[in-house]
Write a structure and sequence with these properties.
This protein is mainly alpha-helical and about 300 residues long. The protein has 16 helices and no strands. Helix 1 (about 15-35) packs across helix 12, helix 2 (about 40-45) runs antiparallel to helix 6 (about 100-110) and helix 4 (about 65-75) packs across helix 6. The longest helix has 24 residues, at about 275-300.
Length: about 300
């Protein structure tokens, strides 16, 4: 763990010590009662190992027949547009590669956390899921265009960036609805959450991701995606990629909670990623089609 991500969550500065202790217990409770499916966590750990073999990935995935069935259904959907039907994991890896299949497995596992209605006002759980997939796809696009980081890892970090939001929806629903009532184009989600909870979804998501043993760069991207300049650790480019992708998707109408209230990233984010006017135009020209693809993937998941 680097110097910018502590084991204890960070809360608003003006809360009394007694309430701080209660919040720390709450974070631990949420981290212990909610989780990705076991197979999903095992697949995610493979993101730390660049030499992950086909056999390792296949064995983990095939230990869950339901996951295999759901993956094959998506592989044979219009999103992938394959010329012939895929019937097994081995064929899928041969066609698409270890990285693509690993990311699909994580996507399918994550989608289970967003099941159920959960609607309130403009908020829809399925739209939060669509936003998560969109940010993953956008982060991968930006990483490819700017030549920073690893596009496959950027996808996973983007996919998981709003983990804290779905956890709030699932575990603190009544208070989460209060947050939904406070957000607007001029009131950010983090501002509303600090008023209601004394912490925000990024802090919760990063803390829980750490307890679940997610790779460090993903923990950092989750924790700092709304405040990228506060991060000074070794995964700065990944944090910046996800912060920018989150803004671009929200600006394009793929919002997390039904309202575009994500502030533009500071100029340093663009310069650190090496994004100039030409590369931004490349991203802009490809983004709409990529987001349409992301919507198709989210719908099939």
């Amino acid at each position: 763990m680097n110097e910018t991500t502590s084991e204890a969550p960070v809360f608003a500065q003006d809360i009394p010590p007694e309430r701080r202790k209660v919040l720390e217990r709450l974070f631990k409770l949420i981290g212990s009662v909610t989780s990705l499916p076991t197979v999903g966590q095992r697949v995610l750990v493979l993101t730390e190992n660049e030499t992950t073999s086909f056999e390792e990935l296949r064995d983990v995935i095939q230990s869950d027949p339901v996951l295999v069935a759901r993956m094959l259904r998506r592989l044979n959907s219009s999103y992938f547009g394959l010329s012939h039907r895929i019937a097994d994991v081995r064929t899928a890896v041969n066609l698409l590669g270890v990285l693509e299949i690993r990311n699909l497995a994580i996507t399918v596992c994550m989608s289970k956390m967003f099941e159920g209605d959960g609607s309130h006002g403009a908020y829809r759980r399925e739209l939060l899921w669509s936003h998560s997939v969109a940010v993953g796809v956008c982060a991968r696009l930006v990483a490819r265009v700017c030549g920073r980081g690893m596009p496959g890892e950027a996808y996973v970090a983007g996919l998981l960036h709003d983990l804290g939001l779905i956890l709030l929806d699932q575990t603190l629903r009544r208070h989460f609805v209060r947050v939904l009532g406070k957000i607007s184009p001029t009131v950010s989600t983090c501002e509303a959450e600090l008023k209601v909870f004394s912490f925000d979804h990024a802090t919760l998501g990063g803390y829980v991701a750490q307890r679940w043993n997610f790779p460090e760069q993903i923990v950092d991207a989750i924790t700092f995606h709304h405040h990228p300049l506060s991060y000074k650790g070794p995964h700065q480019e990944m944090v910046y990629l996800v912060a920018l992708a989150n803004f671009l998707c929200s600006q394009a109408g793929r919002t997390s909670l039904g309202v575009h209230n994500v502030a533009p990233p500071p100029e340093e984010v663009y310069s650190r990623l090496g994004l100039d006017e030409i590369s931004l135009k490349v991203i802009e020209s490809e983004l709409e089609a990529k987001l349409d693809n992301a919507e198709a993937l989210a719908a099939s998941s």
